[in-house]
Amino acid sequence: MLSIIIILSNIVSLSAAEIYNGEIVSEEGVIINQEQKKICQATIDDNFEDDSVIVVFNNDTSLELHDFDKGDFSDIGAKKVHELTSYTSEEIKDVCIDKAQTVMSASVTYATLPDNFVLSSINEDNLVNYIDDEIKEEYSSFHQMVEIKLNIKSKQNVLDVIHELEKRDDVLVAEPNYIIELDSSSITPNDTYVNKQWAIDKINLPSAWGITTGSKSVNVGIIDSGIKAAHFDLNANVDSTLSKSFVDNSPLTDEFGHGTHVSGIVGAVGNNNRGISGACWDVNLISLKIFDSTGDGSAGDLAEAINYAQTNNIDILNFSGSFWGNKDYKKYCQFLKEAINNYHGTFICAAGNQYIDVDAPDISETEFSTKRVYPATYKNSNIIAVASTGEDDKLYLKGVFDGSSYGKTSVDLAAPGVDIYSTYNGDTSDKYYVNMTGTSMATPYVTGVAALIKSKYPSISADGIKKAILDSVDKVTDLSDKVKTGGRLNAYKALLAVENCKFTVAYNKNGGTGSNMLSTTVTYGIPTKLAANSYVAPSSDKIFSGWYANRQSDNKWLYKGPNGSGWYIEGSQPSGYSKFLYRDEASLAHTTSVNNDLVTMYAQWIDKSSIVIGDVNLDGIINIYDATLIQKYCSGNYHFDPVQLFAADVNKDGVVNVLDATDLQKLIN
Questions:
Q1: How far apart are CA 174 and CA 124, in angstroms?
Q2: 3-state secondary structure of 430
Q3: Which residues have CB under 8 Å from 511's CB, separation 6+?
Q4: What are the pLDDT digits (tens) for 640-649?
Q5: What proportion of the chain, given as a percentage, has pLDDT over 70?
Q6: 176: closest CA among 189, 163, 192, 159?
Q7: Which listed residue (143, 231, 258, 261) is catalytic?
Q8: 183-499 belongs to CATH 3.40.50.200
Q9: Fewer Cβ in 10 A, N or C end of the chain?
Q10: Which residues of 549-561 are buried (b: 16+ CB within 10 A; e: fewer)?
């Protein structure tokens, strides 16, 4: 039996550069990250911990899955090392083991076949390479992150240590552990009546509830000061199993009160004849506690909480906090940007409460003139940044540098955030609920609506949720130059926007014959299978291989090349690019974002003589893994497309069965 240790020790051979030339490319062909060292721009005046450094390792090193300890950083005076991406690291190890066991179990299955079926011993080096290739592709964007606690408490020492770490070849980013703050103000105790929740009607929640009131299958992480799970208006919606604290051992308590208030806005139990109603009545609230009893937290804990959310399938994250940094987002807190980028869900965050334009090149002759609010101003595509408005739909303003921040480029929309009545951590009846004001309160309204959308459309992507929310705002004159959408959240219209953002996939015979195939309707962001091909090849020497995609809105075709995929007008594609082939019944979701666009799939017919018999996985090599796939197909555990079926019919008798696996084994030997 192959040792699992062998597989794990060989992961060092993986390299994202082998697939993407050192670049990680999105589905639309946009480069979203490069394996290129980023030099820290922090200064001693920035707000960061004086004994902590965050390190991001490149993909090659990350996939070695080191268990770093202080001995690995003795030259910089490390006191303690804590991995912030341990959840993903453990996941990768588990995947390695599962893949190894799956392949090895094939030998057990083969042993039950007829006597004339011979299975040679599996070459361990080949098996390692086979598994390595799959892991490499699946985790090509993974970057291991660690927090290093230092023996010396000095901000200057932190900067000196960062300078030394940047000299290492395996370090992609080294940065301080920035201090983050919660965004809130104006706590006023009050009574417990729904009629005090003016925001419900403002964002048209009653009409939204006519479509859906939520679902317990939707996981929403509240990255905050904890949740008082014992609160009778929250208890039924709080997940005590998944909740986790990164600052103490009590994720289901909240000494500061902020997280409990935010949680009530998102998901206080609705229609229960007591207390208030959350935006989403039924939802699975998960406390991810990173702020202590004084409201202080760190960017390192935030990054770890995001990594935890990714590996535990938490669909949506609410972060009602912010911190300051260098005004050039490209030079600031790269490790946190990386954590959000690695998260596949929707990350909703506050714009801050300084009443400043977070995009302005020079804000004023104050401390704000060289700063930016983060993470709201990051350019990650899965971030929704939220400003705060009052009942008059104007940005909240209390005084100089006291009110909702804004930004035409960085802040996406506004939501109610003034005198918001919600659950609180008090132990007496007059403190069960309070009014609070701030972008912290506006953010969870957007989060609650995102949860409603996810409840109604479970397979919708983060991009789909964001598009639906931003496309459906109520336009407000006072917000036209303050936020990207120029509007304020509307829950009902956001739900309708998913239905109203569709495109049509049509099918072209491209020389084949047969009845026209029915078109497929796709909602942007929701994975939808292509219809199975029913066309017949134009001649007996050809076979259907898949579909080429062309969209009507810009007459572009989908191409794939050494740097990923992208849409190009035929003839304008980069050198080395060829049209991308969609396999039959493939899933698509983002082919176009243009409403009512038409995407035509052109059937592709290839010569049977060009197919290598026995190369079942179409990788250009015939080996034991092709025989394994045939066995999996015969047992009903694998699906072949037409080309694979043709390649798997080794004895050319018109069917694929164990005899083909036997003949293929003879070819290999």
A1: 37
A2: helix
A3: 538, 603, 605
A4: 888 888 888 8
A5: 84
A6: 159
A7: 258
A8: yes
A9: N
A10: bbbbeeebbbbbb
Report, as an integer, the average pLDDT of 639-661.
Answer: 86
Per-residue pLDDT for 108 more than 60? no
Average confidence (pLDDT) over 325-331: 58
**What SS3 class is residue 372?**
strand
Residue 11, pLDDT above cutoff 70? no
Q: Which of 243, 388, 440, 461 is catalytic?
A: 440
What pLDDT shows up at residue 615?
86
Does the active-site annotation cover 60? no
Q: How far is it, in rounded angstroms, from Cα 173 to Cα 237?
A: 38
Are the C-beta atoms of 11 and 63 separated by less than 8 Å?
yes
Contacts of residue 100, Cβ cutoff 8 Å, sequence gap at least 6: 2, 4, 7, 127, 131
- Which amino acid, residue 454? K
Number of Cβ within a 10 Å radius of residue 364: 12
Active site residue 98: no
Q: What pTM value is reported for the model?
A: 0.72
Query: How is residue 289 written in tokens?
Result: 């506690």
The two tokens of residue 656 are 């694929």
Q: Which of 224, 233, 471, 663 is catalytic?
A: 224
Q: What is the largest CA-CA distance in the chain?
A: 86
Please report, for the chain, the start and end positions of each structural domain, with discontinuous segments joined by +: 4-180, 183-499, 502-610, 624-668
For the chain, report the end-to-end CA distance as a whole number of angstroms.
Answer: 20
Residue 580 φ/ψ, nearest 5 degrees: -75, 135
Task: Please indicate whether residue 30 or residue 651 has the higher confidence score (pLDDT).
Answer: 651
Determine the Cα–Cα distance for residues 276 and 421; give it in Å rounded to an integer: 8
Half-sphere exposure of 69 (CA within 13 A, CB side): 2
Active site residue 440: yes
Work out the mean pLDDT of the chain and round it to a whole number.
83
Tokens of 223: 């990255």
